[in-house]
Design goal:
two-stranded antiparallel sheet; 14-stranded antiparallel barrel; Porin; mainly beta
């Protein structure tokens, strides 16, 4: 019974319904210029290499405001389910709980310099995103029953969510505009095409529970809307028969660099939205279901069961209205201090880097949501061959993590790994996040 109940609770927390999360492990590193430019397009090309090729880059993230990954793992693997388990989960739930999960796979990116000041390039990535937010007393009711709420109406479950896996194709350019002697201004732009082959969206869905004071019945009042677009009989245009939507998006950025030591950057990312109009289905409805129990009669031979829920019907409408999903628009700001050194061959590298980064989500419906992310970090790069660093990160000054990364260069080859929260699966406090970045490539 415990296994079944815990599986139900786990599915509630991860139920169907997670866009770009924050990869802080590349913010201060020397060896991840391409990945850093994903957040700050104006910083593309600051690496001394003339040609940069990024191969098979991968990033995955998981962020929950509702529970600890470690405690959930212990809870599912334990032998007994206690009231303290439910209380602990309930106490960890906030007014609006969010679960974000996804990944980004970059098969190849190519960038090259033209002259001293201009960098051009192109690339692509496959983004898989799952977002689910919920609140309500469903965990308590499943375990403790509804008698404690007799005579009152409670929010049993409110939720919204999105599953989407777009392909992103983009070009990029960054240009330095030399100013007076020790100051330069650098601008960056990344126009992109996002192609989606399907989406499932839940909007403004909720269930309220009313239990009659004497316990003779309870009412479930519901409303829901679900939008979906998956490959069907309608063939779209030039992107192929499976495509359901595409949109144009853009990233913009600018930097001011003082004495090649102080870097101040800002960017506006993922401006745009996906519009689904092909092979669309919408399901929506509202109403009430009353449950009065099960009546069993004629036990002598013919079993007669009268269950009010068997004859109840769920009222819903089916339509074909287009719908949109927002890109995870966000504002990013960074201040960086770097100490430059030169190798014997005259090539520059950054011996030490330190800085602070702030990212603010600009729409509540994207995966990043309206959260504020702050990161403070530093890196060292002795000799220009090996880079190691750490950073402290926070979402909304509530979720905290210690990040770390390391990378090395061997001739033209570079490889690195990093995480924004290396202790994601060890703490028991509600609300945690974790991610992993793997990157490799060639610099010439």
């Amino acid at each position: 019974m415990k296994r079944i109940t815990s599986a139900i609770l786990f599915l509630i927390l991860l139920s169907p319904s997670l866009r770009a999360q924050v990869n802080s492990s590349v913010f201060y590193s020397n060896d991840h210029n391409i990945e850093l430019a994903a957040t700050f397009p104006s910083l593309l090309g600051l690496d001394r290499a003339r040609v940069q090729i990024d191969l098979l880059g991968y990033y995955a993230y998981l962020n929950s405001t509702a529970f600890s990954f470690n405690y959930l793992r212990q809870f599912i693997s334990s032998n007994l389910l206690q009231n303290s388990d439910i209380n602990r989960i309930s106490n960890g739930l906030s007014s609006k709980n969010r679960l974000y999960m996804g990944s980004s796979f970059r098969p190849i990116e190519l960038y090259f310099k033209i002259g001293k000041n201009l960098t051009l390039g192109a690339g692509g990535k496959l983004r898989t995103d799952l977002r689910f937010s919920f609140d309500g007393k469903l965990p308590e009711v499943l375990w403790k029953g509804n008698a404690a709420y007799a005579g009152e109406t409670i929010n049993l479950l409110s939720m919204d969510g999105l599953i989407e896996s777009p392909v992103e194709l983009y070009a990029a350019a960054a240009l330095s505009i030399p100013n007076w002697e020790n100051i330069s201004i650098r601008a960056g732009i990344r126009p992109k095409v996002l192609i989606s082959y399907g989406a499932f969206q839940i909007e403004d869905s909720k269930v309220d529970l009313y239990t009659e004071e004497n316990g003779s019945y309870f009412d479930l009042n519901y409303q829901f809307r679900a939008n979906m677009a998956f490959p069907g009989d309608t063939l779209p245009n030039r992107f192929g028969p499976a495509m359901q939507a595409y949109t144009l998006g853009i990233d913009l950025g600018a930097s001011v660099i003082l004495n090649k030591t102080y870097y101040f950057s800002a960017s506006l990312l993922d401006v745009g939205k996906m519009q689904y109009s092909m092979n669309v289905r919408n399901y929506s409805g509202s109403g009430s279901l009353r449950y009065e129990g099960i009546e069993i009669s004629d036990l002598s031979g013919n079993l007669n069961i009268n269950d009010s829920t068997l004859t109840a019907s769920l009222d819903y409408n089916s339509t074909r209205e287009s719908f949109s999903t927002p890109l995870p628009s966000r504002l990013a700001i960074q201040a960086m201090y770097r100490i430059a050194r030169k190798k014997s061959n005259g090539r520059e590298y950054h011996l030490f880097s330190a800085g602070i980064t702030l990212i603010q989500g600009l729409n509540a419906r994207s995966t990043f949501g309206s959260q504020t992310f702050v990161s403070l970090g530093a890196h060292v790069n002795p000799g220009g061959f090996f880079n190691v660093g750490a950073n402290i990160n926070s979402y909304n000054l509530k979720q905290w993590g210690l990040g770390a990364n390391a990378s090395f260069r061997l001739f033209a080859f570079r490889f690195g790994v990093g995480s924004s929260n290396i202790f994601a699966f060890t703490g028991n406090e509600p609300g945690s996040y974790g991610d992993l970045m793997i990157s490799g490539g060639l610099n010439f």
